Amino acid sequence: LQTGRAAGAATVHVDPSRVFRWPELTDIAVGTLAELALELE
User: Fold this and answer.
1) Calpha distance 41→3 (Å, rounded)
2) Degrees to nearest 5, angle at CA 13 with 9 and 35
3) How many of the other CB atoms lie within 10 Å of CB of 3?
4) How is residue 40 annotated by DSSP?
5) Distance CA 10, CA 19 (A)
6) Strand ranges for the chain from DSSP E
7) Which class for 30: exposed (0-12), middle (13-18), buried (19 or more C-beta within 10 A)?
8) What is the mean predicted confidence (pLDDT) over 7-32?
9) Running DSSP on this structure, what letter comes out for residue 16?
């Protein structure tokens, strides 16, 4: 997440526990890759 942010890229945090510990570095936060697919539709 830090590297993506430093590069100016959008960041995706996939966390099945849904804790999402670094919200300041996260553009999209999802619990599963299936959720990510829905977000990108």
Assistant:
1) 25
2) 110
3) 9
4) T
5) 19
6) 12-14, 28-30
7) buried
8) 97
9) T
- Quick one: pLDDT at residue 21? 96
15: helix, strand or coil? coil
Task: Compute the distance between CA of residue 31 and CA of residue 34 in angstroms, rounded to an integer.
Answer: 8
30 bridge partner residues = 14
pTM (2 d.p.)? 0.83
What are the distances in angstroms from CA 35 to CA 3, 4, 6?
Answer: 23, 20, 25
Tokens read off for 36: 């990510």
**Rounded mean pLDDT of 26-40?**
97
Residues 6+ apart with CB under 8 A from 21: 15
